[in-house]
Write a structure and sequence with these properties.
The complex is a heterodimer of chains A (288) and B (268).
Chain A: H1 19-26, H2 31-43, E1 47-50, E2 66-67, E3 70-75, H3 77-86, E4 93-100, E5 121-126, E6 129-137, H4 143-154, E7 157-158, E8 163-171, E9 188-193, E10 211-213, H5 214-225, E11 230-237, H6 244-248, H7 257-260, H8 266-284
Helix pairs in contact in A: 3-8, 4-5
Chain B: E1 2-4, E2 20-24, H1 31-42, E3 46-51, E4 59-62, E5 75-76, E6 79-84, E7 89-94, H2 103-116, E8 121-129, H3 135-138, E9 143-147, H4 149-162, E10 170-173, E11 177-182, H5 191-201, E12 205-212, H6 218-232
Helix pairs in contact in B: 1-6
């Protein structure tokens, strides 16, 4: 849509089908074209590698779906860092899975020893209760990979008494409101929940006409369609990189039913947050 | 695939035998989608299910047709099905564009669903680039229709009575050979594909479209639903207000802030 305020807006193709794309498809596909397309599709395939039994790799297809009662997904660097600071530690949690993917925006790290600024997607399980699964996904999962991610991750779980919590961030400039976003005190949290989710949410619900996109939307849509209780906490922030103020904006969630029992020692959290700050500064400092 | 939501209707709420299916094509100005929003909002239709697919970009938001606090918290996704059994109407609303290379599989899935659910006919609301009109199309009404042969047999005469204009075919090789004509709907998204597939599959489909450009497309949406109403009379035109039936269509609450947020006071 055009805007009247002189902003430059990228007008995506409303046609839904690029004229180029339809012309391309109308042409007979040569064996070469087919080969190229297959290679590209293979390159963009995502692999979910589970190591459910320590040491033994179950490959990308679990033998049997595992029982999952709580699934907490943090999408984006700040959400992932929030879980690192306040929930995760190497004593109570073990790595049980990793996603390997490639797209134009990122390639995931191969290691599980990752920096907060790396692109990675890791799954952790609570040792004392193996039905609690946590995912930190700080890599960008492209449009054509989101469905694959859903099928490969949720496909491995038994969903009978599953509850899902999603944490993500997005720019405050995307927030639609009567006032200007310049005067809004950010960061702030907004929530969306599926029909089956009956618990209290920790912040106001996201009002119309705001929407959520990308992987958080894909996960929440999946949960809505398949009747899984789920809640998404979206943090609107004006900082695009790793930032402690944004991370701390998720703190109200620590009193929620799902996270209350998982919170670790507060002093630990402060130490980790401080460490994050220094790592961040070193990486972003172009002056010695 | 169609997934019913258990909204209390039971299996009866997903029985569309003999119903008319309305759906938009994601096209220039989003006119089809805006028009469908008006239909759902005005007729106060109930959501009966989701069209769960990997072909559309994911999105979620709260109920776009909320009228009060109580009904504002229902989650909506990118493709949903609404119905109004009293008028034998079912509507598919699509809220996001296609993922690259996925529009063909979507058309296949959609048309199989139409056949399996035994809908009597499909009405596709769409639009086409106004700048691609030829000299003749620049004059007169910007609204056009198309009917598949199966629907033509049933209602073709009615279109003549309404004085509607059929979408013109254009030369396949303009300037070189003007005799071979093809259907060309620039900016219409999957309109042409759905129409040609429906023709070959024996589906009764009508396409109603408007020539328009990107911009404030709300008036285009109103024009398109009024055009639809001339034929199917979804809402009664008020005889006192016959010159402006647009006041009877209800804009959904989600049509706010279409042109951006409020301005920062510091600007002035």
């Amino acid at each position: 849509m055009a805007t009247f305020f002189g902003e430059v807006v990228v007008a995506p193709s409303r046609a839904g089908v690029d004229d180029e794309e339809s012309a391309e498809e109308a042409r007979e596909e040569t064996p070469e074209d087919r080969e190229i397309r297959r290679e590209l599709e293979k390159k963009r395939e995502i692999d979910v590698l589970w190591t459910l039994k320590s040491g033994a790799s179950a490959g990308s297809s679990a033998d049997e779906p595992f029982v999952c009662s709580k699934f907490i997904v943090a999408i984006g660097h700040n959400a992932a860092a929030f879980l690192s600071s306040f929930i995760l530690d190497s004593v109570c949690w073990e790595v049980v899975g990793v996603v390997k993917l490639w797209n134009e925006w990122c390639r995931t790290s191969n290691t599980t020893n990752v920096l907060p600024t790396d692109s990675f997607c890791l799954f952790y399980r609570l040792i004392s209760d193996p039905t609690v699964l946590l995912c930190q996904c700080s890599c960008y999962v492209a449009e054509d990979q989101q469905f694959q991610w859903l099928e490969k991750v949720f496909g491995c779980m038994r969903k009978e008494s599953l509850q899902v919590t999603i944490l993500s961030t997005c720019p405050v400039a995307d927030y639609k409101t009567q006032e200007s976003t310049l005067t809004l005190p950010s960061p702030f949290l907004k929530a969306l929940k599926t029909k089956e989710f009956k618990e209290q949410v920790c912040c106001p619900l996201l009002e119309q006409p705001n929407i959520v996109r990308d992987l958080p939307a894909a996960v929440l849509s999946y949960c809505q369609v398949w009747h899984i209780p789920a809640v998404l906490y979206q943090c609107y922030t004006d900082v695009i990189k790793l930032d402690t103020v944004t991370i701390e904006a998720f703190k109200p969630l620590l009193s929620s039913k799902i996270l209350k029992s998982l919170v670790k020692d507060v002093s630990e959290s402060i130490k980790i947050l401080k460490k994050l700050l220094t790592t961040n500064e070193t990486h972003n400092n172009i002056y010695i | 695939m169609f997934v019913p939501c258990d909204c209390g209707g039971g299996s009866a709420s997903s029985d569309f035998k003999g119903f008319t299916l309305f759906m938009p094509a994601v096209s220039v100005g989003n006119v089809g989608q805006l028009a469908i929003d008006l239909v759902i909002s005005t007729l106060n239709m109930t959501k009966v299910g989701y069209f769960y697919t990997d072909c559309l970009v994911p999105m979620v938001g709260n109920n776009p047709y909320a009228t009060a606090e109580e009904n504002s918290v229902e989650l909506s996704i990118n493709a949903e099905v609404y119905s109004l059994p009293s008028k034998k109407v079912v509507v598919l609303q699509i809220r996001s564009p296609f993922i690259k290379n996925k529009y063909r599989p979507f058309c296949q899935t959609l048309l199989s669903w139409v056949k399996n659910s035994k809908c009597a006919r499909v009405v596709l609301l769409s639009s086409s680039h106004a700048y691609q009109r030829d000299d003749e199309q620049l004059l007169g009404t910007p609204l056009r229709y198309l009917l598949t042969p199966d629907l033509e047999k049933a209602v073709g005469g009615l279109m003549q009575e309404l004085n509607w204009k059929e979408m013109e075919k254009v030369a396949a090789y303009p300037g070189i050979n003007d005799t071979e004509k093809v259907l060309h709907i620039p900016g219409g998204g999957i309109t042409k594909l759905l129409f040609t597939e429906s023709c070959s599959k024996g589906i009764q489909m009508a396409v109603l479209l408007k020539f328009c450009s990107e911009g404030d497309n709300i008036p285009d949406a109103f024009a398109l639903v009024n055009y639809l109403n001339e034929w199917l009379q979804l809402i009664k035109s008020d005889s006192n207000n016959s010159t402006d039936p647009s006041t009877q269509w209800k804009m959904p609450s989600s049509w706010r802030l279409l042109f951006g947020n409020g301005l920062p006071p510091a600007l002035f």
